[in-house]
Amino acid sequence: MLLNYNQLGRLKYVLLGITGVICLFLLLPVIFIILLSFGSSQWMIFPPPGWTLRWYVELFADPRWFEAAFTSFKLGLMVTVLSVILGFFASYALIRGRFAGRGFLRALFMTPMVMPVVVVAVALYAMFLRVGLSGTWLGFVIAHTILAFPFAVIAISNSLERFDKAIEDAAILCGASHLEAIWRITLPSIRLGLLSAALFSFLASWDEVVVAIFMASPTLQTLPVRIWGALRQDLTPVIAAASSLLVILTLVLMTIAASLQKVLNR
Fold first, then answer.
1. Is residue 254 a contact partner of residue 199, using CB atoms and an 8 Å limit?
2. Are residues 215 and 137 in contact, defined by beta-carbon separation less than 8 angstroms?
3. Peptide bond into 29 cis (omega under 30)
4. Radius of gyration over every alpha carbon of the chain, rounded to an integer in angstroms
5. Which of 49, 67, 145, 266 is spaced 20 to 30 Å from 224 by Cα?
6. Tens digit of each residue's pLDDT (9 = 90 or more) over 40-51
7. The pTM is what?
8. Mapping DSSP to helix (H, G, I), strand (E, B) and coil, where does residue 187 land?
9. CB 165 within 8 A of CB 100
10. Residue 238 class from Cβ within 10 Å (0-12 exposed, 13-18 middle, 19+ buried)?
C-alpha cells in the first residue's frame, strides 16, 4: 500500500520525534551528572536541594585533580601525534600497496577496536610488567596508542580511498619526488581525514579508563583513573564536577572539529 505525500510527511515527523526521544534518553545520565555537579548537597542526590559552584571550587583547589587532568591532556597529545603518523604510514601501505596479506593486515590493525578492552588491558599489563613498562609514561603512551591506532587507520584510509591517485602521479611526472608529492599533494588533500584521525585518537586516550587503571601508578594517574579512585573512596559531587569537565571538553573538541571541517571544505 503506497503512502501519499501527506502521510509520508507525518511519518517523517513521527520518526524524528522517536529519534529525539531515544537521543534524550541516552543523554539523560550525562545531563544528570552535569546537574549534580552544581547541587548544594554533599551527596549526589537528585533533584539537588539547591545550586552552588562549591564543588568546582574544590575541584580546582585540589592539585591532585589538576595533575591528573594535565597528565591526561599530555598523554592525549602524545598519543594523537603517534597515532596519526603511524596511521598514515599504515593506511598508505594498505591503500597504495599491492602485496599479499593486505586484508589480514587490515584486520590485524582493527583488533584492538573489536576485542574486549579488559582483554587488551590484561594482555598489555602482563607484557609491560615483564619488561618494566608498567606504571611508566612510555607504557601509558604505547598502550593508548595501540587503542587509538585503529581509529586513525580507519579515518585516514577512507580519505586515501577517496583521493584520486592520478593527481599524485601527475605531480611525480612533473618532476616532484615521491615524498614531495605526498607532502605537497596527498597530505593537504586528505587533511579532513587527518583531522578526524587526530580528534578520535585524542578522545580515545582522553576518555579511556580500563587500560589506564592497569597502567596507573600512585604517581601517574589520568583523570578517568582519578575519578574511578574517588568513586571507591568518597562519593561526592566533586566527582560529578570532574566528569562534567570530561564531557564538556569532548563536546568542545567535537564542535571545533566540525567548524574546521566546514572551513576546510570551502
1. yes
2. no
3. no
4. 23
5. 49
6. 777 777 777 778
7. 0.81
8. helix
9. no
10. buried
Return the C-alpha cell found at 222.
589520568
pLDDT value of position 105: 83
In this structure, which amino acid lies at residue 131?
V
Domain 56-265 sits in CATH at 1.10.3720.10
Give the span between the Cα atoms of 160 and 194, in whole angstroms.
10
By residue count, the chain amounts to: 266
Q: How far apart are CA 25 and CA 19, in angstroms?
A: 10
CA distance 98 to 105: 12
Written as one string, the DSSP assignment of 202-266 is HHHHHS--HHHHHH-BTTB--HHHHHHHHHHH---HHHHHHHHHHHHHHHHHHHHHHHHHHHHH-
List the grid coordinates of 147.
587503542
Give the start-to-end residue ranges of the domains of the chain. Answer: 56-265
Q: Measured between alpha carbons, how far is 87 from 158 in angstroms, rounded to an integer?
A: 12
Q: Name the residue with cell 608529492.
A: 181
Q: Could you report how far apart the first and last alpha carbons of the chain are, in Å?
A: 43
